[in-house]
Specification:
about 40% helix, about 10% strand
Length: about 130
């Protein structure tokens, strides 16, 4: 098994896994609260199965139907649940805010020196799709 630590060569990526986490997410547009526990298990399974690394950002969707912006997480392989909730994107007004929030969580995950360009772009694009920014 690979070490859960992230090397400096790792370039964090953005993954929209909502369709993996909940069958029918595309039609529903949110995670039904009755599927919340299953969604958590499937999220962790995805991180392990595809060997996501600290600093990668995932979108899983949210049980809060009107606020899908709550469904972003940063992977932190040093934590037992493998995730840091990243609700900070909810308040993002533009790409600069997305970058600022990403770097804040990168510091928490212990990976502030990585290149988050792709993550910032992926999150910004999805927030634009939501009409949030």
């Amino acid at each position: 098994m690979k070490s859960p630590t992230t090397t400096m060569a790792h370039k964090p990526e953005f993954y929209n896994i909502a369709g993996y986490v909940v069958d029918g997410y595309a039609q529903l547009g949110y995670i039904p609260s009755s599927l919340s526990d299953e969604a958590d298990v499937r999220t962790r399974d995805y991180i392990i199965k595809y060997n996501l690394q600290s600093g990668d950002v995932i979108f899983t969707g949210s049980t809060y139907e009107g606020r899908q912006e709550y469904g972003f997480y940063m992977v932190d392989r040093s934590k037992s649940d493998l995730l840091i909730s990243n609700e900070g994107y909810y308040g993002a007004e533009d790409e600069n805010d997305v970058k600022e929030f990403t770097m804040e969580y990168a510091g928490i995950a212990g990976v502030p020196d990585l290149d988050f360009t792709g993550v910032v772009q992926g999150v910004t694009d999805l927030l634009e799709d939501f009409g949030s920014i």
